[in-house]
Amino acid sequence: MKLFECKDAPIKVFGLMHFYDRGSLRRLPEEVMEKLPQLRQFGNRATGGRICFRTNSKKLYVKLSSKTFIRDYAATQIASSGLNIFVGDRREGRFLGNVFPLGYARTDNFNSEGTFELDGKMTDITMFMPKNEEVENVFIGIDDDAEIEAPTPYENEKPVVFYGSSVTEGGCASRTGNAYNAVLSRWLNMDYINFGFSGSAKGEPELAQFFATLPMSVFVYDYDFNAPDTEHLEKTHEPFFKIIRGKNPELPVIMLSRPNYANNPEESEGRIAVIRKTYENAIAAGDKNVYFISGNTFFDIDDVFACTVDKTHPNDLGFYLMAKAIRPTLEAVLKKAVEKERMGK
Fold first, then answer.
1. How far is CA 90 from the centre of its chain?
2. Number of domain units in the chain
3. Which structural domain range is residue 281 located in?
4. Has residue 317 been placed in a domain?
5. Which of 119, 125, 214 has its CA nearest to residue 163?
6. Is residue 180 within 8 Å of 296, Cβ to Cβ?
7. Which spans in 153-203 are helix H?
């Protein structure tokens, strides 16, 4: 068996701003976490990261080495700590399986491994990293006579950036590949970065200033879950947008409201009004690249309470319905952004 580390070419890691920084795979730089220490635990995680390559091996060995082992509220151990693996074309990929630590009482050894059967034809492998863990390394083994190649490129060279709450982060999908942004990534062959911070994304201007410097094709934000109340959302939502827009005058920006509308319609309407005001003010000012999708359109089925685990966090059904509702807008916006990227080369 030939063994590789995820940092070895031609393997590529997507979705992490600071790939293999200081021995870890993480998504926030040190300077941002110094300004916002409440984000350190989340910034060191590999949430949204993907390991991608192509191989014609008949067996695939994967070893996940994590620095942490964190149980999560209302989520499976696979969702919290597991590596979620897909094989084949991303738009029609087949779920291959998970690699995750066994047992809830582990305190010292956070390594986990698995071996999977493949058909021996050259194909893409896409691995979604754990939501909750600080990942030290991922090892990949293939047959001695097999080859490994760079992955099929994503459609967009610049990633879509998502900012928001634990819902954005992926809570509480049964596995990481079922978070709404991960589902959209597969459906659209879309690179993305997940800046969902459980309970800690509250429209901080320091984060907006950081995001405004990133190369991105689309910016999506939906942090109203974490806003303590409507007043806080009103104080932060439009200023946050203006910081992003100030440095990115033509960047497509999609604003979302929280999906659990039915849990408290009156409060949800107040939050929707705040977000809609940001959107309408931008339109009135001549902005032609801003979009709004109301969360009350997400769970478009008779039993809306079947879509969450706790009336707040979506389950797999809820995330699927979110992705389905967001897809038409994001797909159209992303297509234009990608065409513009290609014309600019």
1. 15
2. 2
3. 160-343
4. yes
5. 214
6. no
7. 166-169, 180-188
